[in-house]
Design brief:
By secondary structure, the chain is α/β, with parallel strands linked by helices. The chain folds into two domains: 2-68 and 134-221 and 317-335, Rossmann fold, CATH 3.40.50; 224-312. It is built from eleven helices and 17 strands. The chain has a nine-stranded mixed β-sheet, sandwiched between helices. It has a four-stranded parallel β-sheet with strand order 14-13-15-16. It catalyses: a lipid A disaccharide + ATP = a lipid IVA + ADP + H(+).
Amino acid sequence: MIFLRYILFPVVPVYYLVTWLRNRLYDLGIKKSTAYDFPVICVGNLSVGGTGKTPMIEYLVTLLKDDFLVATLSRGYKRKTEGFQLANKDATAESIGDEPFQFYNKFKNDILVAVDANRTNGIKQLRSIDDQPEVILLDDAFQHRKVKAGFNILLTTYSNPYFKDVVLPTGNLREPRSGSKRANIIVITKCPNDLSDAERDAILKKIAPETNQHVFFSSISYSNNVISSNMTKSIEALEDFTLVTGIANATPLVNFLSEKELRFEHLNFKDHHEFSKQDIVELNKKELIVTTEKDFMRLKQYESLQDKLFYLPISVVINDTEKMNGLIRDFVKTKL
């Protein structure tokens, strides 16, 4: 795969030019974007792969849900339905996608969860319901330029920041690095807990943020417990188990569990893996399974796994929570 990417390097300038031109047409107003007079916050990235969008959306939900009626809007990647869908008690990972299903399960009494590949239509549909949301959070919509979000949060990982990358197909960037200038906030995600001030300064120098941009650093905080559909266990109490992951980068999770000196085998599937019947047959042979919350949403439907399937919750820790929360709250208040 890596060799193929290098072979395709001559395509990089073509991809760069096409995506740059598309953005330029939007910037000049030749291609039209829809702006809104209420708070629309976009969380996205420049690269393919996992940068931590799901926990960031959950961070924003937790920040805003007690004071405002919040809705999340995702495209519903790999769902089996089409068009606009508003999550309800009959929703599944197949009907709305695994990440939105995770949002719904965690916050169903507090927020609205919707999916639509056409974000403009999704926003229109959300605002047409009787109990319309005051704030809409767009999940993975940074390149969806037909919607002009009032506030953009751009995520990039510590291990593979966008300023060290190139566009597809040789690199991982969906668009040129210059796209970062659209962000109000840039968050370097999945940082080590011991990140030094000197290293932060070096990263800031590479990013060279505009005067209106703010840069934050975040890390992952893992829970001390794993959770199933009907019980909770301490991580320290786990003995031999099977770790099942279907995410873009499982390395931080594997490192965390290894540092705990836990004994486990790791079944590592590709991101958004659709578990087959044979996969479930094999998993049924395992005595104890620990997985991510996103994978748990896809696997919990299988009754045969109910008593052995647990997920490890995670949360986002921001280096300057007060400042970041203040910026987001100030934006919401000025738009309402």
